[in-house]
Design goal:
Length: 369
């Protein structure tokens, strides 16, 4: 028999995504409905591991009043970090260098000491891997999938993705007229890490003429041919959407900063290479727009808001039903639960045979292959 729950905690980790506040609101509200307290941990697990950073406390009770009216707000009221992995926590070494240490036991001790019965861990693949490790060490944990990149497996989608694609599509819509007026090639770089979901969905919805994805190493000769073909047909401008993780056939990914202890490598800059190369090959005037972190900001769309609210409520229901070590996942018609084990450390790439990609090919989009 598992101990009845009286107090839970929630944390948000990794890059922020529109919808995090809606998850927090639903979790706090569903917990309060059951007579449970819900505590918020600041900046991933840093509120527990680095309490000195928080003069007003790294962990605090979240009341219904505090989460009222936040569902439509971007960001996260708890703060987040992608530099505080408790399993590989950046730690100063005796020789002055920065090493790493596993501080996950401190989280378990904290929960025990403070009488916190369970954790709702909201995050992407990194955060869900941490959640799984905590579950294996004996903590009651339910994971909530979050990422604008849509690269998490076993869930139809995650909140944040629709908001990112909607905004990026609006940007592509706006770029059609200026590219056309100046007869230019405009390259639009979007986030997405090693998966091309944002680029694919944005490019198709926005009517881009070429889309470059990490899943399809590209040949710029093919893209230049597309530009020339459009010119020959009198359509004197071309829009190219490129995923930050896309790479040329015989080349490398564009990396802004290499991986460090506690932090993955930062991708970015491929748009500039593509634009420069296309300018040289076609002789056309070329511009680059990097949408970057704009895709992470703003209000969640109604789709993302609803998904996030459903996730928060389902996470509390899962705990109430005695579940642990599961992630809430978007299925149809209802939310379902999958074992964290099945998602931790896995990435969902765009399948080359998916119908959205085939749709692009039928529309005449060039994928650089
Ligand atoms: O995972 C979300 C994401 O926005 C990626 O698309 C991007 O590569 C990364 O986070 C950027 O993270 P940072 O916040 O470190 O710039």
């Amino acid at each position: 028999m598992t101990k009845p729950i009286k107090r839970i905690a929630i944390c948000t980790g990794g890059g922020d995504a529109p919808g995090l506040n809606a998850v927090i609101r639903a979790t706090v509200s569903a917990a309060a409905n059951r007579g449970w307290d819900c505590l918020g941990i600041r900046d991933g697990y840093n509120g527990i591991l680095e309490p000195g950073q928080y003069p007003t406390g790294g962990v605090a009770l979240l009341t219904r009043e505090q989460v009222r009216g936040i569902s439509h707000l971007g960001g996260t009221i708890l703060g987040t970090t992608n530099k505080g992995d408790p399993l590989h926590f950046p730690t100063p070494m005796p020789d002055g260098s920065i090493g790493e240490s596993d501080r996950s036991d401190e989280i378990l001790s904290y929960f025990q000491r403070e009488g916190i019965d369970a954790l709702v861990a909201v995050g992407g693949d990194g955060s869900l891997t941490i959640a799984n490790a905590l579950h294996r060490k004996g903590l009651r944990v339910v994971g909530v999938p979050k990422t604008i990149d849509n690269d998490l497996d076993k869930t139809f989608t995650t909140f944040g993705f629709d908001t990112a694609v909607s905004f990026a599509t609006d940007c592509v819509d706006r770029l059609h007229s200026t590219a056309q007026s100046h007869q230019r090639v405009i390259v639009i770089e979007v986030m997405g890490r090693y998966a091309g979901w944002i680029a694919l969905h944005t490019g198709i919805a926005g009517g881009a003429h070429a889309i470059l994805l990490p899943e399809i190493p590209f040949d710029l000769d093919k893209v230049a041919d597309k530009v020339r073909q459009r010119d020959a047909e009198g359509r004197l401008y071309t829009l190219v959407v490129v995923a930050e993780g896309a790479k040329p056939h015989h080349g490398q990914r564009a990396v802004l900063a290499p991986a460090e202890i506690g932090h993955a490598e930062r991708l970015g800059g491929i748009g500039y290479h593509v634009a420069q190369d296309l300018a040289q090959r076609t002789g056309k005037d070329t511009r680059v727009v990097v949408l970057g972190h704009l895709l992470r900001g703003g209000s969640p769309t109604s789709f993302d808001r609803l998904a996030a609210l459903r996730f928060g409520s389902a996470a509390v229901r899962a705990l109430d039903e005695g579940r642990s070590g599961v992630m809430v996942a978007l299925g149809y018609p209802d939310i379902n639960y999958v074992n964290l084990e099945e998602v931790a450390g896995r990435m969902k790439a765009v399948p080359l045979k998916c119908d959205t990609l085939q749709t692009g090919r039928d529309l005449g989009v060039c994928f650089g292959d």
